[in-house]
Structure formats: C-alpha cells, structure tokens
Amino acid sequence: MNQTLSTIEELLRIPAPCPSAIGLACDGTDLWIGSFSTNRIYGLNAQQGRVFEEAVAPGRPFGLTVTGDALRAVVGDEADDRYIRRYIMGKNFKSEKVPCPDATGSFLAYDGDRLYLSQRENQCILELDETGRVLRTIPVPRQITGMVIVAGRFYLVTTESREVDDYRLLCLDARKERPEVHELASIPYVARSLGFDGTRLWTIDRDQNQIVAFAKPG
Q: Under a CB-based contact definition with an 8 Å cutoff, are residues 208 and 37 in contact?
C-alpha cells in the first residue's frame, strides 16, 4: 500500500449476496452485483441487505454499469472472449451482443450518452459507439480494476500490476485535450469494480467477498 496517500474512509461493509463477487453498479439505493462463479447477477437493496432480483447471465459476468432502465455487462464466453450484453431490469438479458474490441475488456462506465470500456492489460479506457466501434482511446498510467463516471470525471480503482497489491483511487478528467490524472487515496485491499450512489462510492473487497461503501475524497 502506498504510504504517501491517505487511505479511503470506509463508511459501511455488507456481505456480498453471492460468492466471487466481481461486478458492481449503483442505481440509487440499489446495487447490482455480478458473480464470477455463479454466472448470475443480483439486485441488492443496500439498506436492507436484501436480494430483490436474480438472473442467469449468458456467460461469466465482469463489469456492470447502469444505463437508464437497463444494465450493460461485460460477459465472457467459454473461450473468455468478452462481449457487452444488455440486461433489462425486472426482465432478462437480451439476445444481442456487442463484441469488445480485441475480445477483451473488464469494466464499464456510462456518462448518459456514451459507453466506456476498460482494458486492464492495455491500461486504457475505450469510448465506444452503440456498435462497439472505438471512438477514442484514453491512456491510463495504471491497470484498471473498477471505474465509474461522477460529474464528468472518471473515478478509477487501479493497481500497478497483477503481482503488486498496491491499489489506488484515481480521478481522471478526459474532457480536455490532454487528460488530467490525480491520485486520491490508497485502498488497503484487493478491490474490484466501482460505483456511485449519488453520495458514496462503492467497491468490492475481493478477498473478503464484501461490498464496501466509502466517502468520495474531496
């Protein structure tokens, strides 16, 4: 853990509703969680810790993001080729799928207009159109293990590499010609996914299989 950064201020921990939780998205007071081992997604009321919805994913789910009345999910097939799938809340996954560029990608963010996909090994964020065509590539100085857009800026969970457990929260403003990156805080565990409920940030403590709410720095 980086000793020069302050540690995130934890506000709440709740058990994940499933084993091997990896994907997380926020929809107001509700959370959406994807499981790496059950191949399901779960709608969870964070205040009550109650699962109100459960659905089988068409493969292994990774990152999730809320897009209006639907979710977008990165889903891997048997060959681990990644696709972006659409889940209609209260219904089911739709049959259409959008291939991730180079068949890879982990986490998603949505700004109300465009969808963004992270590629961990390439250390970048891809801005996509509705067909999955890359409109813009945004370089990131570290590997991304979670992301969300808050007030036009990317908030990112990042690490140096798979071999180093040095997780940090970054803020990246890509609205300018040259993106600005600021390190905000250290995260003292292996973190996956990132969501924002309008007040707090949420992530997953992978090793404890717990969902963690923490204060947004600044």
A: no
Kindly state the helix (H) or strand (E) to which residue 55 belongs, with its residue range.
strand 50-56
- Residue 118 has a pLDDT of 98
Per this entry, what is the length of the chain? 218
What per-residue string of b and e applies to 119-155 under the rule 16 or more CB within 10 Å gives b?
A: bbebebbbbbeeebeeeeeeebebbbbbbbbbeebbb
Q: Is residue 179 part of a domain?
A: yes
Within a domain: residue 210?
Answer: yes
What pTM was estimated for this model as a whole? 0.95
Distance of CA 196 to the CA centre of its chain: 10
Task: Note whether 140 and 125 are within 8 A (CB).
Answer: yes
Residue 190 domain boundaries: 10-215
Residue 3 in any domain: the answer is no
Q: What is the CATH number of the domain that holds 64?
A: 2.130.10.10
Closest CA to 192 of 153, 150, 147: 147
pLDDT tens-digit map of 173-197? 998 888 999 999 999 999 999 999 9
Residue 57 in domain: yes
Of 126, 103, 104, residue with least CA distance to 115: 126
Which of 57, 73, 58, 69 is CA-nearest to residue 25? 73
